[in-house]
Amino acid sequence: MKLIIKGRKKFKVPQDLRSYIEDKILKYEKILPKEATVDVMMADVRGPQGGVDKVVHLTAVFPGEKNPFQIEQVTDDFFGSVDLAQERLEKHILKYKEKIKQGLAIQKNIGWLKKLKKRKKRSKFSKIS
Question: Is the pLDDT at 127 greater than 60, yes or no?
Fold first, then answer.
């Protein structure tokens, strides 16, 4: 899994926040395929004025999905925004994994049906001969 952490609008991500994000997001590395990409964009909208303006925008691209997942959380603290975005990402990952499992089950059934059709065709030819 590839993780990209960026600051937006002249915001530089501090090292402690960067390591916190890596701890929160990279724990899904075992579950997701290597081709998955998670992009974290962070911005402090008002700057030093304060308030509820700490934005974490998370974009997750999983292989086989047509559209990436877009998650945006705004709180008064970056760590809180990361926590909320991570919870929503976890829900998306669980849905993605369930979709993959169902897709594999469907593919196995399709393969089984193809084998069954081949057997029927073979039996027709053996009767004619």
Answer: no
